[in-house]
Amino acid sequence: MTVNDQPALDSSWAVLISSFDDNSDLWPLFFHYFFQQWPDAPAPVYLVTNFKRYDDPRVVSLCVGKDTDWGSVITASLASVNARYVWMLLDDLFFDRPVETTRVNETVAQMARRGGVYLETGRQGDAGPRVEGTDLRRIPASNPIAGINSAIYSKQLLLELARPGNSIWDGNKVMNAMNVEDSPDLYYLREGVPPLISFMEAVKGKFWKPAAMDFMRRTGVTPDLKWRPFPPQGQDPISKVVRSFHKRRMDLRKRREEKRFAAGGVPALVRPMGKTS
């Protein structure tokens, strides 16, 4: 077989937002920042939901039904994603800098040419062998940062991590084992090159993080504090009681919605910011 006869390299990729219906208050905010910072993001962008749908032609809602386990949800979602690589993001990562599609294409192609199966996109460093002619370094066993977070996976690897019945912690254990065993196919960006993405992590333990509240205020965005409160952050007894009350209320709301949708109730259509009809 000559060079010209070689099959074309498959470096196709898609973006998958891991979410669920009880986080639907995040969707308008997430996609506001997402498309503001990445207006030419490859379409469609896939959003994992239970029953609800997000009302934006650029986004495909993958409705998987009632929450079961992380592995079953992701496996069901991936059946609709036709790409070799999947950039999986969490729904509370609010982009704060522009994303360059051309550079993402080049980076995924660099990984694909070497048979890579994982690219950590949230961290950079100088540990591990540098891959010549690329922006990549191998993640060495001495720097076990591979995990279920903002990362680009081969679809095959993600299906392995998300076997039905697996929790996200089970997936993390598999990733950690690959890292500790010094898998040659795990990469991250070397220090000194521009990051692929930059984001504000908005939620911790169901509630808004103080830094996220500041970020949203600075950028003119107002969250729904009735749906997702911003309770006291302290460790004093009163603050703990207030947070516990809100968590119980939020859990009850989730169970009521799941029961209504499972019984045939019409799921809500979640609209983008500023869209009323």
Topology record:
Elements: E1 13-18, H1 27-37, E2 45-49, E3 53-54, E4 59-63, H2 70-78, E5 85-90, E6 93-95, H3 101-113, E7 118-125, E8 136-138, E9 151-154, H4 155-161, H5 168-180, E10 186-190, E11 199-201, E12 203-204, E13 207-208, H6 210-218, H7 237-262, E14 269-270
Parallel strand pairs: 1-2, 1-5, 2-4, 3-14, 7-10
Antiparallel strand pairs: 5-9, 6-11, 7-9, 8-10, 12-13
Helix pairs in contact: 2-4
Detailed description of the structure:
- The chain contains seven helices and 14 strands.
- By secondary structure, the protein is α/β, with parallel strands linked by helices.
- It has a single domain (9-277), classed as Spore Coat Polysaccharide Biosynthesis Protein SpsA, Chain A, CATH 3.90.550.
- An eight-stranded mixed sheet has the order 4-2-1-5-9-7-10-8, sandwiched between helices.
- A hairpin with a 2-residue loop joins strand 12 (203-204) and strand 13.
- Helix 2 runs antiparallel to helix 4.
- It is globular.
- 33% of the residues are buried.
- Residues 1-6 have low confidence and may be disordered.
